[in-house]
C-alpha cells in the first residue's frame, strides 16, 4: 500500500473515532434542553471574550516556557522566533493530516537551524512536553486533595482521584531518579533505551535530562510557567461555562476537571484529542459538580465552546504561515522524512499539555 494512502487512511480512522465519540455524546445529550437553551438564551459575550484572552495567554506562556528551555542551552534563538514557531506548531496540531504535529515541526525546524547541536534542539521540545504533562497531574492532584474529591461518594471520581495521585507520585519519583547522574548514565538507562517500541522515547527523555541536569533553576522556572499555564486554562474554561447558558461546577472543581481532561491530549487522536477531551469533560461535569444541577449535555457544550476558542487562537498561526509558506513547506517535508525514520517522531498533545502544546500542557 502506498505510504501516503496508508497515512491518510490511518488519519481518517482516528478522525472517525473522534467523530463517533462526539456523535455519541450529542445523542446522549439531546434528552435535555441544553442545546436548545444554548441557541435561545443569551450569552455573556464579554465573559467569553475574557475566556479567549486567558486561553491565548496560556498558549503564549507555553511558548515562553519553550523559549526559556532553548535559551538555557545558549542556542541563538529570539523570543520572536519562539512565538512564530510556537503558533505554527499550535496550528499544525489542528490541521496536520500526516504524522507531522506541532512538536515534531518545532523539533525539526530548530534542529535544522543548529545542525551541530541537534540533540540539544530536540531535547528542548521533549522536555517542554514532559514538564507540561507532569504539571497537569500536579495541579489536578492539588485540586483533588483541596476539594476532597479523593474521598468522593461517587465511586468513579474516587478511583480517578486515587489514580491521579498515584500517577503524580510515580512521575515525581521518576523525574527525581532521572536527576541522579548514575541513573541517566548507567545500566538502567541503557535498559530503558533498548526497550522495544518505547525505548526511543525513553532515550530522548533521558538525553534531555542529561543536558538539563545542571540547570535545575531553568527546570524550576519551566515548572512554574507550566503551573501558570494550567491555571489560566482552567479559569478560561470556567469562564466559558459561566458565559454560556446553564449551570456548571465551581471554579475549584474546574481545577480538577480541566487538567484531567487535558491529559487526553496525549492520545493519538486528531485536533488535540478531539472527542476524548469532550468525553472526559462531560463525564466529570456530571459527577464532580457538588453545588449545581448540571444537565447531561452541559459539559459537552462547554468543551465545544473551549474547542472553538482554541481554533480561534490557532488562526494566529495562519498569519505566521502566510508570511513564510515556502520555509514551512520545506520544513514539513523534512519532518515527514524524519517521522518515517522514527528519528524525531513523538506524539502531539493537547495545548494544555504543551506548547502546541492546543489546550496547553
Write a structural description.
With 361 residues, the protein is mainly α. 75% of the residues lie in helices and 0% in strands. It has 16 helices and no strands. The protein has helices spanning 3-29, 34-40, 45-71, 79-95, 102-113, 118-147, 155-178, 181-185, 187-193, 199-212, 216-243, 251-262, 270-273, 276-288, 298-323, 325-341. The radius of gyration is 20 Å and the shape is globular.
Brief overview, please?
The chain contains 16 helices and no strands. The chain has helices spanning about 5-30, 35-40, 45-70, 80-95, 100-115, 120-145, 155-180, 180-185, 185-195, 200-210, 215-245, 250-260, 270-275, 275-290, 300-325, 325-340.
List the helices and strands and how they pair.
Blueprint: H1 3-29, H2 34-40, H3 45-71, H4 79-95, H5 102-113, H6 118-147, H7 155-178, H8 181-185, H9 187-193, H10 199-212, H11 216-243, H12 251-262, H13 270-273, H14 276-288, H15 298-323, H16 325-341
Helix pairs in contact: 1-14, 3-4, 3-6, 3-11, 3-15, 4-5, 4-15, 5-6, 5-16, 6-7, 6-10, 6-11, 6-12, 9-10, 11-12, 11-15, 12-14, 14-15
Amino acid at each position: 500500500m502506498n505510504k501516503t494512502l496508508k497515512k491518510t487512511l490511518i488519519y481518517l480512522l482516528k478522525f472517525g473515532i473522534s467523530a463517533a465519540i462526539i456523535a455519541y455524546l450529542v445523542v446522549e445529550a439531546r434528552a435535555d434542553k441544553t442545546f436548545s437553551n444554548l441557541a435561545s438564551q443569551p450569552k455573556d459575550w464579554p465573559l467569553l471574550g475574557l475566556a479567549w484572552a486567558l486561553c491565548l495567554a496560556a498558549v503564549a506562556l507555553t511558548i515562553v516556557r519553550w523559549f526559556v528551555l532553548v535559551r538555557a542551552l545558549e542556542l541563538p534563538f529570539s523570543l520572536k522566533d519562539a512565538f512564530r514557531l510556537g503558533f505554527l506548531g499550535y496550528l499544525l496540531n489542528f490541521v496536520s493530516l500526516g504524522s507531522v504535529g506541532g512538536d515534531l515541526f518545532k523539533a525539526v525546524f530548530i534542529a535544522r537551524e543548529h545542525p551541530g547541536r541537534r540533540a540539544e534542539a530536540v531535547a528542548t521540545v521533549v522536555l517542554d512536553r514532559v514538564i507540561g504533562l507532569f504539571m497537569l497531574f500536579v495541579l489536578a492532584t492539588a485540586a483533588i486533595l483541596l476539594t476532597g474529591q479523593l474521598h468522593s461518594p461517587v465511586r468513579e471520581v474516587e478511583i480517578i482521584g486515587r489514580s491521579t495521585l498515584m500517577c503524580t507520585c510515580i512521575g515525581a519519583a521518576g523525574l527525581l531518579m532521572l536527576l541522579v547522574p548514575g541513573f541517566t548514565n548507567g545500566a538502567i538507562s541503557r535498559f530503558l533505551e533498548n526497550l522495544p517500541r518505547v525505548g526511543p522515547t525513553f532515550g530522548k527523555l533521558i538525553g534531555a535530562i542529561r543536558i538539563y541536569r545542571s540547570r535545575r533553576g531553568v527546570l524550576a522556572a519551566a515548572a512554574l510557567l507550566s503551573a501558570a499555564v494550567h491555571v489560566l486554562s482552567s479559569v478560561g474554561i470556567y469562564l466559558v461555562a459561566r458565559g454560556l447558558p446553564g449551570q456548571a461546577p465551581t471554579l475549584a472543581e474546574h481545577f480538577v476537571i480541566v487538567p484531567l481532561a487535558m491529559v487526553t491530549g496525549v492520545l493519538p487522536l486528531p485536533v488535540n484529542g478531539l472527542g476524548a477531551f469532550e468525553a472526559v469533560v462531560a463525564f466529570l461535569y456530571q459527577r464532580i459538580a457538588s453545588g449545581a444541577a448540571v444537565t447531561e449535555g452541559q459539559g459537552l457544550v462547554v468543551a465545544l465552546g473551549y474547542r472553538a476558542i482554541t481554533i480561534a487562537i490557532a488562526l494566529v498561526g495562519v498569519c505566521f504561515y502566510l508570511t513564510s509558506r515556502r520555509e514551512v513547506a520545506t520544513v514539513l517535508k523534512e519532518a515527514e522524512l524524519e517521522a518515517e525514520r522514527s528519528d524525531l517522531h513523538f506524539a502531539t498533545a493537547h495545548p494544555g499539555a504543551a506548547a502546541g502544546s492546543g489546550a496547553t500542557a
